[in-house]
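User: I'm writing a short methods note and want a consistent example. For AMP-dependent synthetase/ligase domain-containing protein, I'll paste the sequence; you return only the structure tokens, no commentary, since I'll be parsing the reply automatically.
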Amino acid sequence: MASKTVDFKAYVVPNSQEPGYTSIYRNIKNKDSLLPVDFADVKTMYDVFWSSSRAENLGAGIVSIMTAAAQSDTEREAIIKRNWPVGIYSINRPEWGITERALATQSLYSVALYDTLGESSMEYILNHSEAAILVCSVDKVHKLLSNKHSLPLLKVIVCMDSVHSDGSASYIPPPFNVNSVGILKRWAESLDIKFYDFKQVEQIGLESKIPHYPPKPSDIYTLMYTSGTTGNPKGAVSTHFSYASASVCCNHGIPIKTDGMVYISYLPLAHCYGRNSENFTTLAGGIIGYFCGDITKILDDCQALQPTYFPGVPRLLMRFYDLISANTINAPGFKGMVCRMAIDQKIQNMHNNKGLSHFVWDRLIFNKIKALFGGKLELVGSGSAPLEPRVMDFFRVVLCCQLLEGYGMTETSAIGSMQPDGDLTSGNIGVLTYGMEARLRDVPEMKYFSTDKPCGRGELCIRGPSIFSGYFKDQEKTDEALIGDGWLATGDICRMNIDGTITIIDRKKNIFKLSQGEYLAPEKIENVLAKDSLSLQTFVHGYSSKNYPVAIIVPNPDTFIPWVQKLELSNNAEIKQMNFEQLCRNKEVKKEFLDRMTKVSKAAKLQGFETIKAVHLEHVPFDIEENKLLTPTLKLKRFDAAERYKDVIHNLYDEF
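Assistant:
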């Protein structure tokens, strides 16, 4: 029987393999040049942004008020030379984008803040970046003024919610009003902080006649602070050329019609994913609409805006999945039966290359689901973590559009790889984005090698024009990340698949050695356990004095409780009356759960030393605000989790 020919989706650079590395891979569309020639003139975000009178006036106004606030000739000279930071602190809204464009007209750069950082990180970022001016929404002013004692460099606040000099409000969100904003202004003045509103600064800029001061490609575009799992955030320095390149590469690589493109801006602009999505839409000449500020109403916003592109993250997409599946495949009776039949048939057609549409089922069922998102979606993106294959298939058929997974990070200006147009597979992050190239390097301590068969494995190293310049004021961390010749070591362990796609299989950091000398990668085990429908959140931990790991798992109540109800246990009647917390504490339930996780681990072919031997079922989910076990990008804070569950972990080892 002849072997099946694999459609290879990447380009391997000839003679590029070096000892300890795979060959260099590129997108098949840019074999010889990393950047497309038709955007040769786009080298800064000034080139990307459409100029507008509001942005021009605001940029000139910021320079004017900072010049006026200067307290010495040295400060005044530094302001005139440009290339200084301006903080931005707000949810996504038009003024955020106007401020970004304004800074580009004057060679200034942004430093974004967001609420989930916490007060200590906010103070650290403002002081570390040396930002003396902050543009923010009115609801952030109180927090800033309350912490002025910890913000010695802050001199000027520009409030996005404008109040005209005659006292009339152009728009102030409740519960604020003209009087309360007046109190804030007087409070700021008492702290020796100049307080302006947006309209004031625009008018000052209009009257100043300060001309544009365009940036160079090598000038800083933004300082984006990454939320580390330990310690203070790191300030990633990205140049204008980095983000302009990312916008250009997305314009070539994302399969969506740019003519009539409509994008809903809800992903935080303080993060690279949201920022690059908005920039790429701007370059494409698309329409940007902003969500109302309440993520629980995002579908209402979609119905009003009718976006063609929706960039998603697994956490939100899973909420949509739960909502839609409850009313389709999990619906009772005849309705559920018909929906399951329709979805199964569409998925089968999809995998047989018959497309994502169905003449009958779309009219009966799926057009109504499409209408929940506005009815005009052409592409849904997913990044930050993998989606289960069944969920990806589900969305593709119920929304009748492509859902593509991608990969990027702050240090790559949000781009790296993405599934190509028409790719209906799952379990991979696609191929290198237009403009990027990558290779894998050996990680001997984890037994990953570029020479592994059938596919090379190792740490993903990426190179391209969108790579960041380094970490602000942190040469040590910069040298760890940028390993020479333009290569960024991502820390992600990947496999180059036989079709040229990339799959993330592990994480280089967060490994520890067990007592028998074996290295353990907890994220690898967590990813396996998290794929089970009973698991909502997982934390795997171990000690070098022990020869096996243990786990803290938050079960998914929607699947866990029905599963428990079906178990044949000694005290079934009593268990059926228990609530979620009580079920998590029940020893029999815990034993059954552990047995299931052992089977899951065995099916995933985990080694014996990688299989958890004890589990604690936690009824309280890991979160950002309350127990603070997640970063703002929903990564687990391992050190904090280990501290929080220190006694629990000791008890788990004692129990086994």
